[in-house]
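User: Hey, my collaborator sent me this sequence without any context and asked if I could get a structure. I don't really work with proteins. Can you help?
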Amino acid sequence: MINLPASFSTVYAKTDVGHHEMKTRALGLKPTSRRLLVLVDGWRSGKELSLLLVGQDIEVALGNLIDQGCIESVATDVTASTSVASSPIRAATVSGNTPELDVLPAPQLRSPQQADMARHFMINTVNLMYGEHTRLSLIEAISDCDDTEALRAVYPLWLESMIGNRSAVKRLPELRSKLFAVL
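Assistant: No problem. I've predicted the 3D structure and written it out in structure-token form, which is a compact way to encode the shape of the chain:
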């Protein structure tokens, strides 16, 4: 088990100052701080934001934005609890309630063919972005899913993998849209 800082389980949102900064750039934020401000959306926890800013000290970056009044904590994300299992697949499967999936039709309304399409799409995007024979544990986790509900449980891990790849993160809205059509 790893213990994560409290900022990892906190969800952040832009304040009025943050929205104003997005339009005017009046504060002259450094590129990393500006990027983080862009990513703060009221849904992502500190942990999720840290995955988008690999190599950066997320606690310091969040603290700077809070100090400047650009963001504020709005909730505690139960999925980013302060203690996570060491296996990323297990952590994603156990804690995998992702708000964006709530807008999708109930898993029971998806056909087995749609589940197959979603499974293949997830596997193909991982292989395309990372190359075949990499991310094997993720590929296996996706392959082991028998239905839409199981695929939705693995979705956070797929999303984390896509966010970790520069090419994939640029195409993430398109990839998500295509996946959500069948997931």
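In plain terms: The radius of gyration is 17 Å. You can pass these tokens on to your collaborator as they are.
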